C-alpha cells in the first residue's frame, strides 16, 4: 500500500494552497502539460476529451436553435481593428502580430485573432443585402490568442479554444432576444451538463466586452471562493455594423444597419469544472462530461481471475451497448487498492467492483466517487442501476456546488462589512451600488474584488451603495476572479 | 422560368474552363468566399458542414483504432525547426512568423504551425520514459498555415483545416504497421464515404514529406484528369526521435529511440469531392457526406397547398426520425422548377416531390440528382425506399468515378507516348521508372506531370524506364496535380 500513499500525498491539499492543488491535480490526471511557448499549454487526451464532450453538447444546443457552424481566417489585418475604436483599445495590448511570411516582410501586419467580430463584420457586409438575408446565425469553433502576462492553465492561457457566435438581425428587439437566448443556453448547459450553478446577470460598463452596447455573463464560484466568468453574450447594437458597413434593405425598402450579437464560451470551462468539483483526492467529474463514467475493476485471488474477468467483460459489453462510457482495468500487476485511488484521482464518477462472492450472488458493488456511497446491486438490473446512480450523482454534484456557493455568498451593506467577510472567508459579495465607476474602482482597490455582474435575480434588492451610501441603482455581485 | 435559366447559365461549363466551373460552383453553392487575407478563405456553413461530416466519420475510425485527440500549441519556436534538417528545408519557405506580441518584440520568432512533428516530438520526449508508455497514439484536429504563392479554394489555401496524427512506437515494425493502417483508413474512408476511388502507393524520394523515411499517399483523379493527394501517411523512422531526444527504456532495460509516424488529411478533401462528382449543373454530393440527403418539395395548386404541405411535414418527421438528413422547402413564393434547379445545383442527392395526385395514390416521387432516375414509391415504404435509393446512389457515384478514372488512366512505354496521351486527353499515366531523380525530373519538365506514387497494385508491372529505357525499378503513376 505504500504506492497508494505516495500517490495521494503528491497532491497538495486545497486548504494548504489552492493554486498548487489545482496544478498538482491537472498534471497528475494528465489533463495538460506546459508547452515550450510562453503561456500556451498542451491539452492532453484526458483534458481534450472533456472539451470534446463539452463541444458535442453545446454544439447540439446551438444547432437546435438554428445556428450553423463556419470557419473564418485566423489572421486579421491590422486595419480591421482600427475600424471600431473601443474594440481596438480593448484588444491591442494583447495581440500577437505576424509581420513576415515566406521570407518577406508583410505590407500590413496581421493579428492572430483574439476574437472575430471584425472578420465576421467584413464578410457579413458582403453577404447581407436585404431583410431576406436575415437573420444570419453563425458559430465558429476555433483557437484564439491573447498574449497574457499572468497565465493559469485552462483558465487563462495565451492560446485557448473556444466557440464564438456572431449573429446579425433586422431589429434591436430580435438581436436582444438572441443575446438573452444564448446567455440562457450557456446557463442551462453549465448547470445541467457541468453541474455548476451560475449567476446570470449584466456586466457593469467597466467590465463590458470591448465594443459591446451590453454584455451579459454567467458567473461561477470556485472552491476557493473566486469567480470564473463561464460564458458571455453581447448585444453589439449597430456599432460593428457601422464600422464594417453592414446594411440591408428593410421591408419598407429603406437602407438600415443590422443589429449584431456575439457570444462565447471557452476551455476555461474545463478549469471551472475542476475547481468547482475537485477535492484533495483529485478530480471529480460530473457523469455527463466524464470521459469515463464507470471504471470496472475485477477483484479476488489469482486462481479466480479468468472467471471474474470473463464476467466483467460480459457486463462491460452490456453497459457499453446501453451507451454508458465504461472502461475495464483488468491489469494483473496492479493492486485493486492502487486502482481505486487512481480512478478516484482521475475523477471517474462510479467504480464497479466484481469479485468471486459477487459472482456467486449475481451482484456487483458500485461506489460513488463523490459521496463514497456503496451500493450492492443485482447484475440483472445493472444498466438501470448504473444509469440511476449516474443521474443521482450528477444531481448530487450540482446540489453540493450550489450549497457551497450559497454558503459563501454574503449580502453586505458596506465596504467594511465586505472587507471583513473577505478576510474571514473567501466568497462572493452581493451589495448595492450607486452606478458610479469611482465606487466600483474603490471596491476593487480596497478588496481586490471586481464587479462580476448585476444579477437578474439577486437574493435581495439593496437600498444603498456599499461605498458612498447613495441610493443603490443596482445590486451587484463582487468577487475576486480568475 | 427565366429565373431558372439565369441560374443555370451562371455556371461556366466544365468543358469550357474547368477552373472557372469550380469557382463558379463553390461560390454559387455558398461553400466558401474569399477573405481579405491573402490565400485564406472563409468556410461558409454549407462548406463547413461537409467538413463536419468528414470529421465525424474519420474521427470515429481513428478512435476505433485506439487513437485519442489532443491539442498542441499553434506557435512553434524557430529553434524547433532547426533540429531536423530536412524538415526545416522543406517548410521554411512557407512559414509565417510572429515577431511581436503585446507591443514587444519577441526574443525568439514563433512560426505559425505548418505541421506539428516538432511540437509533438518535444512533448513526447517529456512523456515517454519506458516501453510501458508506448505506443502513444494521438491525433489533433487543427488549423495550419503554409504561405502559398498560388492558391485554389479548399485545394491549396494559406490556412487550412486538417487532422494530424502523431504516434510513437517501440519498434520499426510496429510503426510501419501503424503507417500502413492509417493509409488504409484514409483509403477506405475516401472510397466508402466520399465515393472517390483512390490509388494507394508509396511516394518517390523527391515527393516525400520533409523529414520522412517513407511517405505513402492516396491519389484521386479529378474530372479534368488532374490528381489530388487526398491523404498521406509517413514512417518517420527515428529521425524526429533523434532530433527531439525521444528515448525509452526497452524490455531489456536499454535506452532506445522511439519510431514515429505521422499522417494527415485536410479540407482538400472538400475540393476533391466537388471536382470528382460535380457537373455542369453544379455540385453532386454523395449521400454519406451530403448535409442534406433529401430535399422535399410540395407541388400543386394553391388551393391544395395546406393539405400537401401537411402531408409533407408528416413524411418529413418519419424520415428525420429514421436518421435521414432531410429538409423541406415549402416556400410559396418560389416555383417548384426554380427549387429543382437550386437543389440540383447544391448537389442534394435525392429530391422528393409530393403533389395532390401523389396524395390520392399514397405515393411520392423520388428523383436522383446523379442519374435523373425517377421512382414512384409508396408512402408506406418511404423510409426503406429512401434508404435504398441513397445507398444505390452512393454506390453509383463511386462506380462512375471509378469508371472515369479507369478510362483516363493510360499505361505507357515511353515519354513520347505519355506526351501524346496528355495532349489528346488529360489523365493519369502509369509507366516504368528506373529510380533516378533525373528521369523523374525530365518527365516533370516535359509534361508538367509529377510522380504521384508507386502504386501497390499497378495495372501491370512495367519493364523499362519511360525516359532512359533502363530496366524499371518501379511502376509509377504520373499526373499533373493540384
TrEMBL record, chains A, B:
<comment type="function">
    <text>Catalyzes the attachment of proline to tRNA(Pro) in a two-step reaction: proline is first activated by ATP to form Pro-AMP and then transferred to the acceptor end of tRNA(Pro).</text>
</comment>
<keyword id="KW-0547">Nucleotide-binding</keyword>
<dbReference type="InterPro" id="IPR004499">
    <property type="entry name" value="Pro-tRNA-ligase_IIa_arc-type"/>
</dbReference>
<dbReference type="GO" id="GO:0005524">
    <property type="term" value="F:ATP binding"/>
</dbReference>
<dbReference type="GO" id="GO:0004827">
    <property type="term" value="F:proline-tRNA ligase activity"/>
</dbReference>
<dbReference type="Pfam" id="PF09180">
    <property type="entry name" value="ProRS-C_1"/>
</dbReference>
<dbReference type="InterPro" id="IPR004154">
    <property type="entry name" value="Anticodon-bd"/>
</dbReference>
<dbReference type="GO" id="GO:0005737">
    <property type="term" value="C:cytoplasm"/>
</dbReference>
<protein>
    <recommendedName>
        <fullName>Proline--tRNA ligase</fullName>
        <ecNumber>6.1.1.15</ecNumber>
    </recommendedName>
</protein>
<dbReference type="Pfam" id="PF00587">
    <property type="entry name" value="tRNA-synt_2b"/>
</dbReference>
<dbReference type="GO" id="GO:0140096">
    <property type="term" value="F:catalytic activity, acting on a protein"/>
</dbReference>
<dbReference type="InterPro" id="IPR002314">
    <property type="entry name" value="aa-tRNA-synt_IIb"/>
</dbReference>
<dbReference type="InterPro" id="IPR033721">
    <property type="entry name" value="ProRS_core_arch_euk"/>
</dbReference>
<dbReference type="InterPro" id="IPR045864">
    <property type="entry name" value="aa-tRNA-synth_II/BPL/LPL"/>
</dbReference>
<keyword id="KW-0067">ATP-binding</keyword>
<keyword id="KW-0963">Cytoplasm</keyword>
<keyword id="KW-0648">Protein biosynthesis</keyword>
<keyword id="KW-0030">Aminoacyl-tRNA synthetase</keyword>
<dbReference type="InterPro" id="IPR002316">
    <property type="entry name" value="Pro-tRNA-ligase_IIa"/>
</dbReference>
<dbReference type="GO" id="GO:0017101">
    <property type="term" value="C:aminoacyl-tRNA synthetase multienzyme complex"/>
</dbReference>
<dbReference type="InterPro" id="IPR036621">
    <property type="entry name" value="Anticodon-bd_dom_sf"/>
</dbReference>
<dbReference type="Pfam" id="PF03129">
    <property type="entry name" value="HGTP_anticodon"/>
</dbReference>
<dbReference type="InterPro" id="IPR017449">
    <property type="entry name" value="Pro-tRNA_synth_II"/>
</dbReference>
<dbReference type="GO" id="GO:0006433">
    <property type="term" value="P:prolyl-tRNA aminoacylation"/>
</dbReference>
<dbReference type="InterPro" id="IPR006195">
    <property type="entry name" value="aa-tRNA-synth_II"/>
</dbReference>
<comment type="subunit">
    <text>Homodimer.</text>
</comment>
<dbReference type="GO" id="GO:0016740">
    <property type="term" value="F:transferase activity"/>
</dbReference>
<feature type="domain" description="Aminoacyl-transfer RNA synthetases class-II family profile">
    <location>
        <begin position="38"/>
        <end position="286"/>
    </location>
</feature>
<comment type="similarity">
    <text>Belongs to the class-II aminoacyl-tRNA synthetase family. ProS type 3 subfamily.</text>
</comment>
<keyword id="KW-0436">Ligase</keyword>
<dbReference type="InterPro" id="IPR016061">
    <property type="entry name" value="Pro-tRNA_ligase_II_C"/>
</dbReference>
Amino acid at each position: 500500500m505504500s504506492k497508494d500513499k505516495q500517490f495521494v500525498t503528491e497532491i497538495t491539499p486545497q486548504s494548504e494552497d489552492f493554486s498548487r492543488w489545482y496544478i498538482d491535480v491537472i498534471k497528475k490526471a494528465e489533463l495538460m502539460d506546459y508547452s515550450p511557448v510562453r503561456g500556451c499549454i498542451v491539452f492532453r487526451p484526458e483534458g481534450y476529451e472533456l472539451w470534446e464532450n463539452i463541444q458535442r453538447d453545446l454544439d447540439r444546443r446551438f444547432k437546435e436553435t438554428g445556428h450553423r457552424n463556419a470557419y473564418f481566417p485566423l489572421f486579421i489585418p491590422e486595419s480591421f481593428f482600427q475600424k471600431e475604436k473601443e474594440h481596438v483599445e480593448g484588444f491591442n495590448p494583447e495581440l500577437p502580430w505576424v509581420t513576415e511570411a515566406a521570407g518577406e516582410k508583410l505590407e500590413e501586419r496581421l493579428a492572430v485573432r483574439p476574437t472575430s467580430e471584425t472578420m465576421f463584420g467584413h464578410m457579413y457586409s458582403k453577404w447581407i443585402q436585404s431583410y431576406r438575408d436575415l437573420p444570419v446565425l453563425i458559430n465558429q469553433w476555433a483557437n484564439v490568442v491573447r498574449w497574457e502576462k499572468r497565465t493559469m492553465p485552462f483558465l487563462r492561457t495565451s492560446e485557448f479554444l473556444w466557440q464564438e457566435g456572431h449573429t446579425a438581425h433586422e431589429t434591436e428587439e430580435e438581436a436582444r432576444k438572441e443575446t438573452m437566448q444564448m446567455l440562457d443556453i450557456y446557463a442551462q448547459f453549465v448547470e445541467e451538463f457541468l453541474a455548476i450553478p451560475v449567476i446570470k446577470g449584466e456586466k457593469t460598463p467597466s467590465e463590458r466586452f470591448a465594443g459591446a452596447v451590453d454584455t451579459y455573463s454567467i458567473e461561477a464560484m470556485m472552491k476557493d471562493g473566486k469567480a470564473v466568468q463561464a460564458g458571455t453574450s453581447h448585444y453589439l447594437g449597430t456599432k460593428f455594423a457601422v464600422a464594417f458597413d453592414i446594411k440591408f434593405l428593410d421591408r419598407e425598402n429603406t437602407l438600415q444597419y443590422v443589429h449584431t450579437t456575439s457570444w462565447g464560451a471557452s476551455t476555461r470551462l474545463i478549469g471551472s469544472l475542476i475547481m468547482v468539483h475537485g477535492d484533495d483526492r483529485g478530480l471529480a467529474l460530473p457523469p455527463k462530461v466524464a470521459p469515463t463514467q464507470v471504471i470496472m475493476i475485477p477483484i479476488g485471488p489469482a486462481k479466480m481471475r479468468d472467471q471474474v474477468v470473463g464476467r466483467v467483460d460480459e457486463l462491460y459489453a452490456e453497459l457499453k451497448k446501453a451507451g454508458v462510457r465504461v472502461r475495464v482495468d483488468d491489469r494483473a500487476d496492479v493492486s485493486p487498492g492502487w486502482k481505486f485511488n487512481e480512478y478516484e484521482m482521475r475523477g471517474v464518477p462510479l467504480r464497479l467492483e466484481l469479485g468471486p462472492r459477487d459472482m456467486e450472488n449475481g451482484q456487483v458493488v458500485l461506489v460513488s466517487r463523490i459521496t463514497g456511497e456503496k451500493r450492492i446491486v443485482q447484475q440483472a438490473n445493472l444498466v438501470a442501476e448504473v444509469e440511476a446512480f449516474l443521474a443521482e450523482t450528477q444531481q448530487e454534484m450540482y446540489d453540493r456546488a450550489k450549497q457551497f456557493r450559497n454558503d459563501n455568498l454574503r449580502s453586505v451593506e458596506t465596504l467594511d462589512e465586505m472587507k471583513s467577510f473577505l478576510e474571514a472567508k473567501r466568497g462572493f459579495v452581493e451589495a448595492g451600488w450607486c452606478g458610479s465607476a469611482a465606487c466600483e474602482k474603490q471596491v476593487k482597490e480596497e478588496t481586490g474584488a471586481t464587479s462580476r455582474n448585476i444579477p437578474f435575480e439577486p437574493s435581495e434588492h439593496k437600498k444603498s451603495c456599499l461605498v458612498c451610501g447613495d441610493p443603490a441603482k443596482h445590486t451587484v455581485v463582487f468577487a475576486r476572479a480568475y
